[in-house]
Amino acid sequence: MSYTDNLDRLSALFAERFSKRHEQLLAGMKTLTEPIDTSSGTTLKEEVLAIDRWKLYRYQPVVEKPLPIPVVIFYALVNRFYMIDLQPNRSMVRKFLEAGLDVYVVDWGHPTHGDRYLTMEDYIDGYMNLAVDMVRQRSGQNAITVYGICQGGTFSSIYTALYPEKVKNLALMVTPIDFDTDTGLLNVWSRYLDPDRMVQAFGNVPGDFMNSGFLLLNPLRLMFQKYVDFIERMSDKEFTANFIRMEKWIFDSPDQAGEAYRKFIKSMYQKNQLVKGEFELGGRKVDLKSIKQPVLNVFGEKDNLVPPACSRPFTDLVSSKDKTVLSFPTGHIGLFTSSRSQTEYAPAIASWLSKRCLDDRPMKRSALNPKAATAMKKKPQSRASKPSKPRTSSKKTKR
């Protein structure tokens, strides 16, 4: 075959692919000009308590009589909780509700500049403890199930160790516990951060700064390849809606309260104090061996944000006799949004929870005491303002 023939074939192939890509772009542009529903967090829920930017929601049950021991979900501070309810057909929450679970979730909100002085004590001894007490009183149970996700799981393990009488079951999902590992870039990078200088410069550490670091964990895929793939498939309206929902969640990153961020980076990523038994909260040593409740440890085998080496050791660090590990062949986000999440991962987790959310010794039911807000630390969130009083609400919302 002559040089001219080869050139003609290459030209024809180029023209064919260019024409196909042009058609894809035109079809995609048409899709983008039409109305697309990209709403997230649409499962009906009721706001039951709110303080400052923080809120506690209860999801509306979908069974006539939910299981008596409720589940309270604590997500990470760095991202928004609606990842667990991204869309109707990709919702871990809906799977939990269908299994008969009574589900609550904490919304940490977006910290303002005045929240820069919030500490880990404020979050765990204050907000978390208030949420657990509120759910205990509403359900009439002495102890409830705590479900922590990512950093929220680290907080949940600390809370359970300090308040064991209030926790019936502890479930952790993609949770960093052992930070002394080189299997994840985030762990390596964080050892060299200067949180003192960052808090001094920013007050609250910007969410955009944090998000940039997450994107750099896999820059080729997260910053380039996925957008190339999107162009090829954006004529698919359902795919486009799903893509936009995910992008909205990724870039909806709250700022991090300065003091809490400072302690978390130093104590966890740089000193690994929780695993060593050296971590203190409010002057109290946190001993993971004091955790004797049934424990579920869930993680993704391909997670590059919280590698399995960070999560797996937790099971051996607690004294529980009822211990279950669920590892799935997926990444950090795939546990929530993949098709297998709906058919395999969420049902397996819901099954474990359901078997352990049967009735316990009931406590006397009572309305939330307004003085419960004193569980919050006395120091102000800023030098000019003090924490607001809690408000209760029965307003149902779709978010």
Keywords:
399 residues; alpha/beta; Rossmann fold; nine-stranded mixed β-sheet; two-stranded antiparallel sheet; 15 helices; globular
Q: What is the CATH class?
A: Alpha Beta
Which strands sit side by side, in order, in the main sheet? 12-11-8-7-3-6-2-1-13
Q: Please tell me how large the radius of gyration is.
A: 23 Å
Fraction of residues in H or I helices: 40-55%
Low-confidence stretches: 365-371, 373-389
Summarize it.
With 399 residues, this protein is α/β, with parallel strands linked by helices. It is built from 15 helices and 13 strands.
What does this structure look like?
This protein has 399 residues and is α/β, with parallel strands linked by helices. The protein has one domain: Alpha/Beta hydrolase fold, catalytic domain (Rossmann fold, 3-Layer(aba) Sandwich). It has helices spanning 3-33, 92-98, 120-139, 151-162, 185-190, 195-202, 207-215, 219-233, 237-250, 258-270, 273-276, 308-311, 314-317, 334-337, 339-355, and strands at residues 45-51, 54-59, 71-74, 85-87, 90-91, 103-107, 144-149, 167-173, 280-281, 284-285, 295-300, 323-328, 396-397. It has a 9-stranded mixed sheet with strand order 12-11-8-7-3-6-2-1-13, with helices on both faces. A two-stranded antiparallel ribbon has the order 4-5. A two-stranded antiparallel ribbon has the order 9-10. A hairpin with a 2-residue loop joins β1 (45-51) and β2. α3 crosses α4 and α3 (120-139) crosses α10 (258-270). The longest helix has 31 residues, at 3-33. It is globular, with a radius of gyration of 23 Å. The termini are far apart.
